Amino acid sequence: MASEPTIREPIISCDNLVKIYRVSDLEVMALQGLDLRIYPEEVMAIIGASGSGKSTLLNILGGLDEPTAGSAVVADWNLGRLTRKQRLIYMRDVVGFVWQNVARNLVPYLTALENVLVPMILCGKADRAWARELLEAVGLGHRLHHRPLEMSGGEQQRVAIAIALANRPKVLLADEPTGALDTKSSRQILEVFHHVSSEYGVTVVIVTHDRSMSYAVDRFVQIRDGKTSTETVRRRPLEAGEEVVQDGTSHDEYVVLDSAGRLQIPPEYREALGIGDRLSVEMEDDKIILRLPQDA
Fold first, then answer.
1. Model pTM score
2. CB 172: neighbour CB atoms within 10 A?
3. CATH code (residue 51)
4. Quick check: is 93 in a domain?
5. What are the residue ranges in the chain where pLDDT is below 70?
6. For the segment 119-148, what is each residue's pLDDT rounded down to a tens digit?
7. Which domain covers residue 93, as residue numbers?
8. Which of 21, 72, 161, 218 is deepest in the core (most CB within 10 A)?
């Protein structure tokens, strides 16, 4: 008798997520009913242009901001219902952060090893052996006693990854982690993300506007106007040292339906076909066909 397929439960679930910022008498909707699923030990990216809502989403997932409406659940923590104390525990123990600005990640007068020990000391559980292991995992076992100014930008960012893993989080959040790095260093950072994900079972979520970097992850989701619009999935895992291609042969792209069954048609399609505010919908065998109305 054939076994039933295993259903993976997401570690991150966003349902109809809304975030409204109020500035004086103005209201800005940064997220407009966003739906998203991210699975354990996945290395995935969220991409979008400036103002698309990706940074707002990262801040909510990291506990730095609260949703206005909808639901955001990370590792069974409902982020819309946390007390102040619970939020601090969540940010300390459940998620780790890697910022684009290296100065935000590292204490300049401490060595790499001392920097990794800082979050452990703040929790009262310094473990030098674990700190050494993390630095070796990111390829910096030979730089334990170097300070940030004695390291390259890529090495500093790898120390930042080790710091983010110090308290053994379930989710690692990275905000434009390769934005200030060259191509070679960027690829090294992505290889480190894949390695620590498989080695320690951590889920990695990268926020970026760089589509070229996104093709090196398992899956990337594009956000447009505060909603998920497309999802692109790698057909097989990326192997160490493998060249990253961006010609569409390594990934499959899908449009994403939200919880109400709505989908976003890519703007280039709408422009090419002159699509306005409505389409006719037909079902034919196993296909759904969208057509321009005859009076369009």
1. 0.87
2. 23
3. 3.40.50.300
4. yes
5. 1-7, 237-249, 295-296
6. 999 888 889 999 999 999 999 999 999 999
7. 12-237
8. 161
